[in-house]
Structures are given as C-alpha cells and as structure tokens.
Amino acid sequence: MKIGITCYPTYGGSGAVATELGIALAARGHEVHFITYQQPFRLPNFLPRVFFHEVEVGRYPLFEFPPYDLALAVKMHEVVRDHKLDVLHCHYAIPHATSAWIAREMLRESGSDVRVVTTLHGTDITIVGQERSFFTITKFSIEKSDAVTAVSEYLRDETYRAFGCQGCGVEVIHNFIDPEVFSRRRYPDALPEALRKGRKVVMHISNFRAVKRVRDVVKIFAAVHAVTPATLVMVGDGPERVEAEAEARELGVQHDVHFLGKLDAVAPLLSGADLFLLPSQTESFGLSALEALACGVPVIASDVGGLPEVVRHGETGWLHPLGDIDAMSASAVALLTDDALWQRMSSAAEIDARTRFAEDDVVRQYEALYERTLVTA
C-alpha cells in the first residue's frame, strides 16, 4: 500500500507514535509519505520507501495567522495525486482530518479518491475539540473519516461521550514500542556516571506542559531524596520547566536534579533509570510510561485517563489518585529501598510491555484496518 501520514512533528507522544508507525510500515514493504510542516523529530534523514513532503505556508500580509490547514490540504491533494496514495492517515482530528477531507473532496472533483483514517491521541478530543469554537468541526472531521481509531479505551469512551459521532465506530489500537529499541540489555552503560553517582535514578520525560504536573515530580523526588540517595533526571522542555527548576531550589534538591532538554533517543536514558514518575493531570495513553516499562523501569503515575490500561497497579508500578504526592512518594521510597521488590516489578514491567504492546502486533492491526477501509471504498 501507499500511505500518507500527517502528524505534529514536534516533541510529543502522538508525533513519536505516528513516525514509528510509518517507519515500521515501510520496513514491512509499504510506501510511506510523511506530509507535515517539518521533518518529524524521530524520523532519520533517509530510510527506504519513506518520503517527506514539507507543507509550506505562504506569508501574505492580509493573513494575521497563515492558514496552515489549507496549505496542508493542498499538499495532501498534491501528494495523493502525484504518488497515487491509497490512504491518508491523520494523527489528531484537527486540523489534520479536516484538511484530509478537503483534499479528498478536491480529488473527487477530478475523478480520483483516497481513504481517510483518523487516529485520536488525546487533547484533540479532551481539550481542543471540546472548545466551543472547535467542537462542530472536530465532530464533523471525525464523522467524515472512513475509519477512526483511538489510542485507549478511555479516549474512545470520551469521544463517544463528548461528540456522539453518529455512524462512526471508534476502534481502539493502542500505542506500541519497538522491543529491539526499548531494551534494558541493549544499553548496559547508557547513563553517565556523572548523573548516576552510585545513586538511584528517578526519571521523568514529557513536554513540560501544565498537564504533566512537573512540580509534583520534583516534590515526589524530594521525599525520596530525604530517605535514600537519589538523582532526578528530567528529559524534555516546555513552559513549566522554569516552575520545576524553582521547585527544586525551594526544596533544596537542585544539585541532584538534572534537566537534559529535548532528546530524540530516550531509550538509552530509560535503560539506566530505576523509577519513572508520571503524576499527570490526564493522559490519554501514556507513551512515555510504556517506554519506561519496556525498559524494565517501574512506573508511579496518576490513576487517570488511559494510564490504568498501561500500568498494572501493584505489578508493574503503582497508580495513585491525582495529586496524592504522599502516596506516590511512599510507593517510590518502598520500591527504591527494597531490591527484591524492584527486581520483581522491573521484570514484570518488561514482560508485560512486550507482551501487550509489541510493535508487530499493533502494526498488523493498522494494516488490517487500512485493508478493510480500502475494501469498503
């Protein structure tokens, strides 16, 4: 098949999953075309059967805000027409699915066609899509897609609750990991001694938005630090980084908190961690938690959104009520001071992640979905 993929190419779970999916599809013999405004951050410069098409947005003085959605629709139309794509796979309902619908209507005017598959990742449904100014177009874009998937049961149910979506079934296809990449044994000495210093390593990876509650991460770490020697490694960047740095100074742990910024290759770092913290306000899935589990790193997280579908409470980590820093801290201390408990949870985390979220199984689900969509064309 020839498949077009549109995603947000910047740091974040949806872009990572979309890119990894495209790479995996190409490895299985499909032709994959990424259509977006810049090369996705996890996409290497060159891979067989993988192509990148940049969406250029013209700067016309009349437009205070350049219309990216229209430029994207034009580029989608052009790529489908010139490369005879079978499917446009849009990650995020707006504006990507909206642009794909426009491109498809333009194609039909000239006697061509393409199938539109939309994958819902989270904030396109839970936040942006439910705003009054976007609600109607989000619902329209979902219903006009030929197939719709959600990355968790939670997100599927939230889509039905918020939008109704008459006549559209939302299929759950979870996110996935490449077990060859996210493997603790592959990176035995990945974490520099300057970071580890013979201590337990606590880690957090995110885009540092308010929803990630990075100040809670620092508070939990401070409680751990008071009991056992530990280092906190913060990977990523975003608007709340300044607040997290301030929290570390206020709690007196700033010298043991390391902010590494945005990094593409997180598997080596995760493989050197002992505990992963994700006390988010909401997570539609929790890709970073899954990647940590696959590396044998137990996860302590909020009991919200799709996280209960990823973390098995008491087996591969712990889930606690949102904002319950005391409970999260107690679990973290218990895990990091009991080697037998840590080893048991680490092994269970690795096995469970590789069993339930293996790349090959999930990619086959997407292939089957594409094929069913084409049959009903």
Give a description of the structure.
With 377 residues, the protein is an alpha/beta fold. It folds into two domains: 2-176 and 358-375, Glycogen Phosphorylase B (Rossmann fold, 3-Layer(aba) Sandwich), CATH 3.40.50; 184-356, Rossmann fold, CATH 3.40.50.2000. It has helices at 13-27, 68-83, 93-109, 123-126, 132-144, 153-163, 193-196, 214-225, 241-250, 267-270, 287-294, 307-310, 325-336, 339-356, 359-375; strands at 2-6, 31-36, 50-54, 87-91, 115-120, 147-150, 170-172, 200-205, 230-235, 257-261, 275-278, 299-302, 317-320. Strand 8 (200-205), helix 8 (214-225) and strand 9 form a beta-alpha-beta unit. Helix 8 packs parallel to helix 9 and helix 11 packs across helix 14. The longest helix is centred in the C-terminal third of the chain and has 18 residues, at 339-356. It is elongated, with a radius of gyration of 21 Å. The model has no long low-confidence stretch (mean pLDDT 91).
